[in-house]
Amino acid sequence: MSSIPTPVLWTVIIGLALGSYGLRFAFIGFMGGKPIPEWLMRHLRYTAVAIIPALVAPLVVWPAPTGGDPSLMHFAAAAATFAAGYLTRNVLIGLGTGGLSLLLLYLAA
Amino acid sequence: MAITTTKSAFWKGFRDSAPFLFMASPFGFLFGVLAAEAGLIVPEAFAFSLTVFAGAAQFTALQLMQENAPLIIILISALAVNLRMAMYSASLTPYLGDAPMWQRAIAAYFIVDQSYALSVVQFETEPEMPLPQRVAYFFGTNGLITPAWVIATALGALVGTRIPESWGVDFVLPLAFLAMIGPMLRTPAHVAACFVAVAASLPAAALPYNLGLIVAGIAGMVAGAQAELWLERQKAKAEGAK
After folding, report:
1. pLDDT tens digits for B170-181?
2. What is the model's pTM?
3. B85 contacts chain A (CB < 8 A)
4. Nearest to residue B178, comparing CAs of A6, A5, A55?
5. Distance between CA atoms of residues A109 and B5, nearest Å
6. Measuring CA to CA, which residue among B172, B224, B209, B226 is closest to residue B31?
7. Which end of chain B offers a freer environment for a tag, N or C, measured as fewer CB atoms within 10 Å?
8. Could you tell me if A54 lies within 8 Å of chain B, comparing CB atoms?
9. By the 8 A CB rule, do B177 and A56 touch?
10. C-alpha separations of B100 from A88, B96, B126, B135 in Å
């Protein structure tokens, strides 16, 4: 893993801090009681649930630990994590299940 | 139980948020560990959690920085994950919008998934709650979560510097994201957004500068919005047919 250059890191931290604050302040600070347009709300609802899967899918199909070669072990751990999180609606149970299955598969291999 | 004073409103928020500690602390800790693995020193990880204060966006930025993605892509992607904060801000405005500006300015920093979810439920169940109590309740919901998140990050970063690289924790971050996705899929429209984003992200991974993430993210977002519209129309039709 290559290390992150300090200027990049701090630009990201400061940019995200200001940007996140701006998003949080946008309506409660500026808009007063004005309603936010319905079409905008409708798209905002789906940003996180689109960006995060789009980020993670390539990481599962081409996992970093194998240098990007598709790996059944990593795919299985990923599937178990997702399934447990989805079925229990609990992030920690999902993460625990995934970590455990990765460990078991690693020991079995 | 009706809330009687501003002080008790704060403490009710404080108590209501306690279960979320079991979510925020481990995730803050994990962020610290992974940040340390990525080469961040403890003060850097600490400053990251303190100033940005948004788990999913922090994980996103951390992943993309390790992939050497261009700055602009890192910022756009992580802020896109945080766009829901603007939605929270909008839905809290009817309840907190009349508070003095300095209170709203401070409250804005504290808008996170937990404080939003708890507050909206509280304000909807007790609409007669006076404004100062609403503000106190909102701040109360952050009384535990915020320090826990920041302290857990620092502890994680401390531990993370001691974990040998041979442990191969570089698949933990993808697993953390996957664990987050399941509970997000509350409606068929969320599932549609997720599915389209995944389907688009694999071919789009060939695009340079990590642009594929933005393209797939937008595709998923539009799919979710369209699915929601379509489902509403189907529902309206079904009701019209009755």
Report:
1. 788 889 889 889
2. 0.82
3. yes
4. A55
5. 61
6. B172
7. C
8. yes
9. yes
10. 41, 9, 21, 10
